[in-house]
From TrEMBL, chain A:
Residues annotated as domain DOG1: 81-291
Protein name per Swiss-Prot or TrEMBL: Transcription factor TGA7
GO cellular component, one term: nucleus
Location(s), subcellular: Nucleus
Source organism: Linum tenue
The keyword Manganese appears for this protein: no
Family: Belongs to the bZIP family.
InterPro entries attached to this UniProt entry: bZIP (IPR004827), bZIP_sf (IPR046347), TGA_domain (IPR025422)
UniProtKB/TrEMBL annotation, chain B:
Protein source organism: Linum tenue
CDD domains: GRX_GRXh_1_2_like
GO cellular component terms, A-Z: cytoplasm
Domain Glutaredoxin as annotated: residue spans: 13-76
Name recorded for this polypeptide: Glutaredoxin domain-containing protein
Signal peptide location: none
Length: 296, 103
């Protein structure tokens, strides 16, 4: 049924076509040709897209596999740090997105349920960073605590491979007002405990420096003593990894307790303030590097 | 183990350490900073140090080294991680109340 109607329609078109002027006929033929070429181009383009998409999926799979390999096999220090640098770059990108989300959510006055989710995401994101840093500490603790992976201004504030938690509390506090008296007291207690732990860890690292320096200052070049001296020094340096881990543990605990003390909305504001603070420091680092200077 | 538990119950606040361990020093500094004078016991200076270390390893489990090992009132409180967490939560100050030095 359909086909006979189609044929009838086609014949009707043919008749109509035959009645057109030669110029019109030529134009119609050109249009048909152009349409045909366009369809071919589109087909080629879509095929290209498909191929690229497959390639992308393949590359992504390779990347995941490569990451897994570098995490789980013993390798020279360079490889582990390479992974860390890549993952940290992703971390910063994701952080930027989360900060923008928090800003939008707070401005739009979304409900507590959605805010709670954003706060959880933010806290988990920081937890991920500490996990990454723990792996990096295993690979090359000196790299981690040197802050080479951070921007210059962040490095200026460096305390055992990151920010000083008590100082971050000072950054946050004014952004969280108004706090209840109870909250104020709890935050002040937290800040004090934080400072006490920081002082203890700082003293521990200082002691490590002093004792290492003293032991290296001795000339033990006679026979086996040199080996013993170096072995003892290596054991000392291995202790640095614990300090790096404890510093991050302190940072994580501080965030955890702040989230406990604050309401969901306050916690969201706090995470936003923190994220924006870090972004500003990074921006400052870029501006500093690019500042106009007298030619020497 | 008996020596460890003996020393722990004989003294209010004991931190088992090694003379070369700077984290042990850090933990002792924390206690002093909050007004408590812990007894520091260097197991590497003890003739039974090896056995003590084994006993402390058992207590510490897989996540921490044998030292520092903190005992309060004869009870094992944990290693560095546990002590830091306890201090931030306020628990440590609470547990150390009876041991504050009056100096």
């Amino acid at each position: 049924m359909k086909s006979s109607v189609h044929i009838i329609g086609y014949e009707f078109e043919l008749e109509k076509y035959a009645s057109f002027s030669p110029q019109t006929q030529r134009r119609l033929a050109q249009n048909r040709e152009a349409a045909r070429k366009s369809r071919l181009r589109k087909k080629a383009y879509v095929q290209q897209l498909e191929t690229s998409r497959l390639k992308l999926v393949q590359l992504e799979q390779e990347l995941v596999r490569a990451r897994q390999q570098t995490t789980y096999t013993t390798q020279p220090n360079g490889a582990g740090i390479g992974t860390f640098e890549m993952e940290y770059a992703h971390w910063v990108e994701e952080q930027h997105k989360q900060v923008a989300e928090l800003r939008r959510a707070l401005q739009a006055h979304v409900g507590d349920v959605e805010l709670r989710m954003l706060v959880e995401n933010g806290l988990n994101h920081y937890a991920n960073l500490f996990r990454m840093k723990a792996d990096a500490a295993k690979a090359d603790v000196f790299y981690l605590i040197s802050g080479k992976w951070r921007t210059s201004v962040e490095r200026f504030f460096l305390w055992i491979g990151g920010f000083r938690p008590s100082e971050l509390l000072n950054v946050l506090l004014p952004q969280l007002e108004p706090l209840t008296d109870q909250q104020h007291a709890e935050v002040c207690t937290l800040r004090q405990s934080c400072q006490q732990v920081e002082d203890a860890l700082s003293q521990g690292i200082e002691r490590l420096q002093q004792t290492l320096s003293q032991s290296m200052a001795l000339d033990q070049s006679i026979g086996g003593s040199y080996r013993v001296q170096m072995a003892a020094a290596i054991e000392k340096l291995e202790g640095l990894e614990s300090f790096a881990n404890q510093a991050d543990h302190l940072r994580g605990q501080t965030l955890h307790h702040m989230a406990r003390i604050l309401t969901t909305r306050q916690a969201a504001r706090g995470l936003l303030a923190l994220g924006e603070y870090f972004e500003r420091l990074r921006a400052l680092s870029s501006l500093w590097a690019a500042r106009p200077r007298e030619p020497t | 183990m008996e020596k460890v538990m003996g020393l722990a119950s004989d003294n209010g606040v004991v931190i088992f350490s090694k003379s070369s361990c700077c984290m042990c020093y850090a933990v002792s500094m924390l206690f002093q900073g909050i007004g408590v004078k812990p007894v520091m016991y260097d197991i590497d200076q003890d003739p039974q140090g090896r056995e003590m270390e084994k006993a402390l390893m058992k207590l510490a489990g897989t996540t921490a080294g044998p030292v520092p090992a903190v005992f309060i009132g004869g009870k094992f409180m944990g290693s560095t991680n546990d002590i830091m967490s306890a201090h931030l939560s306020g628990q440590l100050l609470h547990m150390l109340k009876p041991y504050h030095s009056l100096s």
